[in-house]
Specification:
The protein is mostly helical and 148 residues long. It has one domain: TerB-like (Orthogonal Bundle), CATH 1.10.3680. The chain is globular. The N and C termini lie far apart (45 Å). The model has no long low-confidence stretch (mean pLDDT 84).
Length: 148
């Protein structure tokens, strides 16, 4: 059965919905969505023009039906990876389940498999230490584009 979220919108819109669903699943890994996590999800939804409260409630209830779609550009991949990490640290703590989901998401986001560990470790280090997006973007892009 196709939902309204599935039926409407472009491929880009559907990609944003899949990211939000992944963020919701990530925030629920520890059993509850912390208010800080939900605030980030709402901000990201608004950023992507998905600011319908009823649609977001529907997505929250049905997040398990969506899988992460591979973004088309490297910029989008890095941005979505950053969003996942920021959400994981939103409530001031992370657990192994959250980190494992993020690690698996690196491949789903379309990053090279041979660089997944480096991307994961560097991203984790940067976000944990409060790095701004510009630095995060530069560092992750350098890893992806390196010839090693």
């Amino acid at each position: 059965m196709m939902t309204i979220l599935d039926a409407l919108g472009s491929a880009e819109y559907k990609q944003h919905v899949s990211l939000l669903a992944t963020l919701i699943k990530l925030s629920e890994v520890d059993g509850v969505i912390a208010p800080e996590e939900w605030e980030i999800i709402e901000k990201i939804a608004f950023k992507y023009g998905l600011n319908d409260p009823e649609g977001l409630k529907f997505l929250k209830k049905n997040a398990g039906k969506y899988s992460l779609r591979t973004p088309y550009t490297l910029d989008e991949r890095i941005d979505q990876y950053y969003q996942l990490l920021k959400l994981a640290y939103a409530d001031g703590q992370t657990d192994e389940k959250e980190l494992e989901l993020i690690k698996r998401s690196i491949i789903s986001l379309g990053f090279p498999t041979d660089k997944a560990d480096d991307i994961f470790n560097k991203g984790l280090e940067l976000v944990k230490n409060g790095a701004e997006y510009d630095l995060f973007y530069k560092e992750i892009k350098n890893i992806v584009l390196s010839k090693e």
